[in-house]
Predict the structure.
Amino acid sequence: MYIPSKYENTNLKEVKEFIQLNAFGILTSLSKGRLWATHIPLELEIREGSPDVLVGHIAKANEQWKGFDNNQEVLCIFNGPHSYVSSSWYEKEEVPTWNYIAVHVYGTIKIQNEREVLAAMHRLVDKYEKHSKQPLSLKNLSPKTLKQVRGVVGFEIKIEEIKAAYKLSQGREEDHTSIIKELNNLNNPASSSIAKEMQKKR
């Protein structure tokens, strides 16, 4: 991903927190000479003494997995908020632009065995059920229902490189107050999120 230096975020702690909060990503890989992309949860797991990994699974009916040779390089994309920025909000004449947050993670993929897939699914469900009024646990599902795990291919991606773009009107600091105000006035969740991120960086 091309990132002008002023937009690059090299704070790995902050970027990893972003990935954990925006875990529904896009897994891209090459299979049978063609690029594939699947939208799925990709959970960041930080392991002491070992490289960080992304963990996920796709349906066996999805042919993308057939190109998952162990140690194949893949790209995972995580999108954050984004918003159009009108140059009418600037003090001086300029062209409009777009503010956004995006993270690209490069790594090598390894297919999990059935035991590893089931353990990963337990962690995934526990994470997202903890705020439910009546949290569901895979431990309470019947063996018949859990057999559905055989219909997916689970994997781990050993993270090799992380590139993070936080384009938040850097270089136009004199206009930040106006931009933040106008973004909030749009009453759009994504625009308000960008305004919040700009405010944090001030």
User: Anything to note?
Assistant: The chain has a mean pLDDT of 94. The helical segments are 12-21, 114-129, 143-146, 176-185, 189-201.
